[in-house]
From TrEMBL:
Keywords assigned by UniProt, alphabetized: Signal
Name under which the protein is recorded: NADPH-dependent FMN reductase
Signal peptide start-end: 1-15
SUPFAM superfamilies for this protein: Flavoproteins (SSF52218)
Native source organism of the sequence: Aureococcus anophagefferens (Harmful bloom alga)
Family matches, as InterPro entries: Flavoprotein-like_sf (IPR029039)
């Protein structure tokens, strides 16, 4: 179940996660500015997390945050050493170029290092290629900064809130970038699963008040033409469903321990013919000849609009996430499916999440993915011809 939860982690790629890392001081002044920044981001609809620099983890920067805000008190004209120590653990091997960065500072005097500290933190963020934004006021052009207890302290908190709001909205603008399926540059739509593949699919389906639990199947598919596709699904109890669209038949095969009986059904009579109108994937979605839009317009899905791809890492592996919405025929998205897919660096599918406005969602993980499929993988057992 741990992996199914992990599969959900990138499903929120289209909402904004704002991480605010700040340093402590005896008056909690920097915390007050951090809270104002987070409140501004929340007004933009973002999810926020405030963490002391001494307790911050780089994993949150790499795997969770869309916005990273750094806040520090001035220590001898420089940023707090605990925040600089946190920055030591950032990695150049991770692509943070699609994330937004922001900085703010507090100090004891207007000319005692406030602006240099903001610039120092911004320079660190730029070093890791984040898109750095200042506040929404000329007095916070590089970032909110204020003298603790000074006459303008309330203004500092207000400007920090404006900076948080701006950072979250800029991150949302960067994330939107929706393009049609199969864009001209080919960069937004996910890669194809391929005509033939096999793998273990672990999935969990939930709806309001219902949790189906974890289902694990071994799945093998060959689908160049959906009308001719072949699929084999082996469940945990070793019951097998063999779908042969090319023959117009589906077979349910019991394991040898339960007699090995085989029952057949006619596709289009006993089984809905739609199973042969698009390439299949159990508890998930996949492409049909490179497109994730349903090839049959009567199914109600005309196209898929994809967000710009987003890189992330988990447990030492790198992935590219693709979030999209299947737009219904006629342009309505009232009941459109939302897709969240992640592929590893080899172009193999790893996570497939699907959600529906009626509160039905499926989170799936694909393990052992291979495009090497044996020629006899879809042979029909002799017992099915009795």
């Amino acid at each position: 179940m741990r992996w199914v939860v992990a599969a959900c982690a990138f499903a929120l790629a289209s909402s904004q996660n704002v991480l605010v890392v700040y340093t402590g001081d005896s008056a909690d002044s920097t915390l007050s500015v951090a809270q104002a920044f987070a409140a501004g981001a929340s007004r933009a609809g973002a999810s926020t997390k405030l963490v002391l620099a001494s307790e911050a983890a780089y994993d949150d920067v790499r795997d969770w945050a869309d916005v990273v805000a750094l806040g520090s008190g001035v220590i001898n004209g420089n940023a707090d050493p605990t925040l600089l120590e946190f920055l030591r653990y950032w990695s150049f091997s991770d692509d943070l170029s699609g994330q937004v960065g922001a900085s703010f500072a507090t100090g004891g005097g207007a000319a005692a290092g406030l602006q240099p500290v903001v610039e120092e933190l911004n320079r660190a963020l730029l070093t890791f290629r984040l898109v750095v934004v200042g506040g929404d006021d000329w007095r916070a052009s590089e970032g909110a900064a204020g003298v603790v207890g000074g006459r303008g302290w309330n203004g500092t908190l207000e400007r920090a809130g404006g900076q948080g709001f701006r950072a979250a909205t800029v991150a949302a603008a960067l994330a939107r970038g929706r393009t049609p399926d199969k864009p001209a540059n080919g960069s937004a739509a996910p890669p194809s699963f391929g005509d033939a593949w096999a793998g273990a699919v672990s999935a969990n389906m939930t709806s309001a008040g219902y949790d189906a639990g974890l289902v694990i199947v071994n799945f093998t598919s060959a689908c160049g033409d959906p009308a001719q596709q072949k699929m084999k699904t082996v469940y945990g109890d070793f019951y097998t469903v063999l779908t042969r669209c090319d023959l117009g038949l589906e077979f349910t095969i019991a394991p040898a321990s339960r007699g090995g009986d085989c029952a057949s059904r006619k596709i289009g009579v006993d089984v809905d013919a739609r199973i042969c109108s698009a390439c299949g994937c159990p508890f998930c979605v996949r492409d049909t000849n490179g497109s994730y839009a349903h090839p049959d317009a009567s199914a109600g899905l005309a196209d898929v609009l994809w967000d710009a791809p987003r890189a992330f890492s988990r447990e030492g592996r790198r992935f590219t996430a693709h979030a999209g919405v299947a737009v219904a025929v006629g342009g309505s998205d009232d009941y459109s499916l939302k897709y969240d897919l992640a592929f590893d660096d080899d172009g193999h599918p790893a996570f497939v999440n699907i959600s529906h406005p009626l509160w039905i969602s499926t989170a799936a993980r694909v393990d052992g993915f291979t495009r090497d499929v044996a020629g006899d993988a879809f042979d029909i057992p002799r017992g099915c011809f009795k």
